[in-house]
Design goal:
The protein is mainly beta. The chain is built from three helices and 13 strands, in the order E-H-E-H-E-H-E-E-E-E-E-E-E-E-E-E.
Length: about 280
C-alpha cells in the first residue's frame, strides 16, 4: 500500500539513482513504492492513495506528517481489508516520507495490518557529555538559537548514536517542543556542512527533536547513548518543576581535527529551514 507520491520525474533525473535500471520499472511504478507489474502477478494488490486535502483527495485540511494522517491511514487499511479481492491481511512497503507515514499508523495497530517494510525514513556510539552546566532563559517561539561550542585539541571521531541531556523548566506552558543539532566548525569558526535527511545539503551532521510530554523512557530498551521511547502516554510538565530530558540525535559520523569545534544548537523550532528539492516535486 502506497500513500501519496505519484507521477515522479524519470529516475535518471535524480542525483542518486542507486544503480536502478529504469528499463526494469513499469510506467505504473509510483515514486518510492512497489511496482504493480512485478507484484500483482505474485498475488498482491497495490493501492495508491493521496492524503486528505492533497492532489486528488477531498478535504481542505492537509494532514502531512501529523497524527491525523495516521488515523486516516488506519481507516484506509481497515477499508481495504474488507474488499472482496483482499484476504484481510494488509502490508506496507515503501521509502522515505512513505515510511514516516507507515510508522504513524503502525503505532495505532490496525487489526488488519500484518507487516510493514520500512526501507528508509528519517525519524524517531559516542555520547556528548558537557563538562560545564549553564542556566539560560530562552524564548522558544523565537528563531533564536542557544549554541554551545567545544574545541578539540586532538583528532577525534564521533561515530554512531549520541544524546543531549537538558534540564528544562517551562514557566508559562505545560509542554515544549525541543529541536537540537550537532554542527562541525572549522578552525576559523565557520560551519562545515553535511548532507542531511538524505536529499538536502548544507546542514548539521546530526539532528534530533522531542516533545517534552513524550519524554517517558522505555527503561528496558534504552541505552546510555540512546534513549528509547514508545510514545504511548502523555506527561504534561508542571511549570513549577525542573525536568531532566534526554534527546536522541540520529546516528551520524564526523571527524574533528585539532582546532575544530563541535557546536550544540538548541531551539524551539526546526534548526534547518529548507526548500523542496527535485525529489519533493512530483508531477
Amino acid at each position: 500500500m502506497s500513500y501519496g507520491k505519484h507521477h515522479p520525474p524519470p529516475i535518471q533525473a535524480f542525483p542518486f539513482d542507486t544503480g536502478v535500471d529504469a528499463s526494469r520499472l513499469s510506467k505504473y511504478t509510483v515514486f518510492e513504492a512497489p511496482d504493480p507489474v512485478l507484484w500483482c502477478p505474485r498475488g498482491y494488490a497495490i493501492i495508491v492513495t493521496d492524503p486528505r486535502g492533497c492532489w486528488n483527495s477531498e478535504g481542505e485540511d492537509a494532514s502531512f506528517q501529523t497524527p491525523v494522517e495516521g488515523a486516516d491511514e488506519y481507516d484506509l487499511i481497515e477499508w481495504a481489508a474488507k474488499l472482496e479481492c483482499c484476504t484481510g491481511d494488509i502490508g506496507l512497503s515503501r521509502v522515505s516520507y512513505l515510511v514516516q507515514s507507515q510508522w504513524m499508523v503502525a503505532q495505532m495497530r490496525p487489526p488488519s495490518l500484518k507487516a510493514i517494510v520500512a526501507w528508509e525514513g528519517w525519524c524517531d556510539g559516542t555520547t556528548t557529555k558537557p563538562t560545564a552546566k549553564a542556566s539560560l532563559k530562552y524564548d522558544s517561539e523565537s528563531d533564536d538559537r542557544l549554541k554551545f561550542n567545544f574545541k578539540f585539541n586532538k583528532e577525534t571521531a564521533m561515530v554512531g548514536y549520541s544524546k543531549l541531556r537538558l534540564a528544562i523548566q517551562t514557566p508559562d506552558n505545560d509542554d515544549a517542543d525541543i529541536f537540537v543539532a550537532l554542527r562541525k566548525l572549522d578552525d576559523e569558526g565557520e560551519q562545515v556542512t553535511f548532507t542531511y535527511f538524505t536529499v538536502y545539503e548544507h546542514g548539521p551532521f546530526a539532528q534530533g527533536c522531542l516533545r517534552a510530554s513524550h519524554r517517558a523512557l522505555d527503561e528496558k530498551r534504552s541505552k546510555d547513548y540512546q534513549p528509547w521511547r514508545n510514545h504511548d502516554k502523555l506527561e504534561p510538565l508542571d511549570p513549577k518543576k525542573v525536568y531532566e530530558i534526554d534527546i536522541e540525535f540520529l546516528a551520524a559520523t564526523a571527524r574533528f581535527l585539532p582546532g575544530e569545534s563541535l557546536q550544540i544548537v538548541i531551539g524551539g523550532t526546526d534548526i534547518t529551514k529548507c526548500k523542496p528539492s527535485l525529489v519533493q516535486k512530483h508531477g
